[in-house]
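Weekly structure sync, notes
Attendees: PL (lead), two postdocs, one rotation student
Agenda item 3: pending single-chain targets
PL asked that the sequence for the first pending target be pasted directly into the notes so everyone works from the same version. It is reproduced below exactly as submitted, 245 residues in total.
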Amino acid sequence: MVSNNICVTLDPATCTETGSWSLVATGGVRRHGIVIGYNNSSVSGPRTVVSGNVCRNTRWTGIYKQGVSSGPVIIANNICDLNGYDTANDLSGGIYFNQSGHEEVIGNYISRFQNTNTGTAGITVNASTAPVISASVRNNTIQGSLGVGLILTTNASFVEVAENTFLSNVGKDILIVPNPGNANISGHNIIRNRIVRTSGTAVTAISIDMQSSTRTLVVKGNRITGNDNTTVSGDNAGIRIAIQK
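Predicted structure, written out during the meeting:
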């Protein structure tokens, strides 16, 4: 259990009794706030609760869950802020997890994610192989991302993305981009999310690339509000589902 910790990258020159305790610029040299299951990808993997932590000002992630989980992983009620300064790196997210099907990501607040790389997001879900057990991303708030709000990518499968709030993100709020040529991936439920758009032109709130997936994917009961951009583009849609095999 990893709970109630504060992991903030500060400028050591200001960390004195009478100092300002300022954030170091662009996360300094710290990659992650909290890492679980590092290099543990072959046997069992973590059974972990990560809750109530503050992870701020890092180059890659706030919370990074690696490896294959044979039991539950709960990432709940954390604050991840100013993560992802290293925009050249794909291993990036306020919360980044390799999905194996036992993950519950609930009630976290992700703010000001810095990475504009379209393969990363405030919450990034990756998978080396397609899980057969679902994972859940519920009741999180993602606000002020300079890039994407949430991405389900590579072989991520059967993820329930439900009742999350997306506020003022620059890039797409929910982006699904699976690996090409694999029929047994995706199959997500995207339900009852609240999306408020305040910036960007020709940006889709929910963007889904089906690739070769034959899994049933549900997009239901989402509410999308905000500014209406007049840019004439195929991406200028509230919800866009494409098949690009």
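Discussion points:
- The chain is about 0% helix and 40% strand.
- The radius of gyration is 18 Å.
Action: rotation student to compare against the earlier draft before next sync.
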